[in-house]
Every structure is written in structure tokens, then in C-alpha cells.
């Protein structure tokens, strides 16, 4: 499904068994309050992402906290948020945690900053359900979505933030989408978010919920990929009718067979150099527009498609014109560098006076092209066979 980025790891990660006790977590951070409860984010996203469980303790802020008069919350929390209930209104509390895995426990974290419960129930109403996220832009390995309330407000209270989740939308199982939180589950202010390190040509779904001191909303409806559509409005490329699938990373095509290698140079010491032509730019749709419309098309001098696609790689083989001879890998079997101006590869150790032919294929992230046509025969130490025959 951008080496995978942290976001992609969040979608695909499979955790390895622990080999040592976890490190001491950071102090918990207040996330939500009511008159009788506080919710905190546990020990930083790293510990939660590593698959640790947490033990949670709380106490009153001030002298009792200094005396370490702590109350332990029953059971374990698997993160990333823990809620302490049964508290008194308008009272300051502190919370601390320790991480646990199969090897053992960490030390207790520092205490959180004092967290005051609300004075009365209902001081802060829970936020309304936000609308589904909207598509902004796609590249081969990123998706940008917009989330939050459409009027740009914080909903019903200044503390309102949003939790965004994504799920690979292809091949749904019986349980539906497997949702994973973006930004390591840390609530964010409304705006745009870029999910990075994704596989090309892959559909994703998104949903969002709002949270504040009064509680949290239900999840929005899922924003799901659409079928490819065209538009006659917007950018020039959109007006040209570029097909775009929203919430889907741009596809990378398997390249076409490159041109046959061309003679460049040969020496009497048994070397032949051939030139590899620069690829033609490949037009690739790009996706932009907050409402899911098409955006500008384009290509790259590498011929690999979307701008964030990896450059094409080229592999060259050579052989004699004898029907019994096989092909051998040039350049030690390594890729030949081919830029906007083309590229060259030199093969040494050849027999002077013998005829050789060359061929090349190109590879993208999507796969390998067919082999090119075979080059014109080249006589080592003389040049193209046709020219050598005229001497």
C-alpha cells in the first residue's frame, strides 16, 4: 500500500514482539473535561504506536500530589486516550501513566499539568457531527483532504478539534473498512491534511469526528472514492476532460518499450558504447479541487508519470549476432542512468571484429516494459556493421 512513511506504516504496520521493557512515557496531556471526568492523551504517540498497554493513576493537584497520594484506575488502557471518571466538579487533578508490554513496566511518567473539571454538567455542549471530508488533491503517493465545519468555525466551542481516519477502500472484507487514525490519532484543528507514503493507483476512504471539552460527535459519513469522472469546468486540463478518481492516488503506468539502443563509440581495446534515448514525457492526470473535480494534467522528463513517481530505470543486455549466443547483462546487471538528455552504457571485454547487438527495457513502480527492438549490429573496434562493410 513514500520507504513507507509513518502514515503508511499506520495503515499497514504489523508489530514485532517486544524485546525490552518500554521507555518512560511523557506526561499525559489533557484532551477533554466534564464536571466529573477528565480525558488525557497517553505518553506521546510513539509509545501507543509501539503497542504498549498503560496503567493510569490520578490524584488531586497540589499537596496530595506531592505526597504521591495516587489512585489507580482499574484495568489497563491500550491508548491513545484514557478517561478518569468519578471526580468532583471544579477541582484540579493530575494524571500519570506507565507503559507495559510483555517484558515489563516502564517507570511512572511525570504528572500531567493540573486539569480542572468543569463546574457544572453541560457547561460545554458536545460538538455536532462534521460533514464528510472532501477531496483536494492526489499524487501517486499522497492524498490531500479537507475536513472540519464548512463555515470555518470551531463548531460550538473554541476547544473543538477533529480526529481524522483513513482506510484502504479496495477489497473490503466482511467487517467493512479497517479504519486507522491519521496524525497518530492526535486531534487537529480543521483544515487540510496530507496523507503520505501511499501506494499508487489505490482508493482510500476518509471519515472525521469532532471533539471538545463537552464530549465528541459521532463519526461523519465516510467519504469514499468515486468512479472516474470528467469535468468541463476548472483548470485548462480539467476542461480538456482529464479523468479523475477522487480519494484515489494517481496510477503509474507500466512503461512502453523504449527505442532501440544506438551506436555511440567503439575502441580497438574491445569496448562498445551505446546511447539510450531519453523517454518521451508521459501525460498523467492529476487530481485537484475541493469538490473532487479534475485538475491539471502533466508529465515529467523521466517519463514516469506523476511528479512524485520514482524515475524510470533502464536495464541493457548485449549479445553477438550468432544464433547460438545468449544475452548478457550490461553494466554488471545494474540500472543504467538515463536522464532528460538520455544515457550511455559501455561494455568492455568484447572481441574486436565481432558483431554485437544491444537491447534495453524500462521499469517503473508498476512494472517492466517489453524489451526494445534490437540495435543495429555493431562491429567491435569498427562501428555499425553496415558502415564497416563499406570500408
Automatic annotation (TrEMBL):
Family matches, as Gene3D superfamilies = Immunoglobulins
SMART domains recorded for this chain?
Answer: FN3
Q: Which Pfam families has this protein been placed in? A: fn3 (PF00041)
Q: Where is this region: Disordered?
A: 1-32, 283-308
Please note every region of biased composition (Gly residues): 290-302
Q: What is the name listed in the Swiss-Prot or TrEMBL entry for this protein? A: Fibronectin type-III domain-containing protein
Q: Which PANTHER family match?
A: FIBRONECTIN TYPE-III DOMAIN-CONTAINING PROTEIN, TITIN
PROSITE patterns found in the cross-reference section: FN3
Top-down, what is the taxonomic lineage of the species of origin? Eukaryota, Sar, Stramenopiles, Bigyra, Opalozoa
* Ranges annotated as biased composition (Low complexity): 18-29
Keyword line: Repeat
Q: Please list which residues make up the signal peptide.
A: none
The domain of life is Eukaryota
What positions does the domain Fibronectin type-III occupy? 24-120, 129-230, 257-383
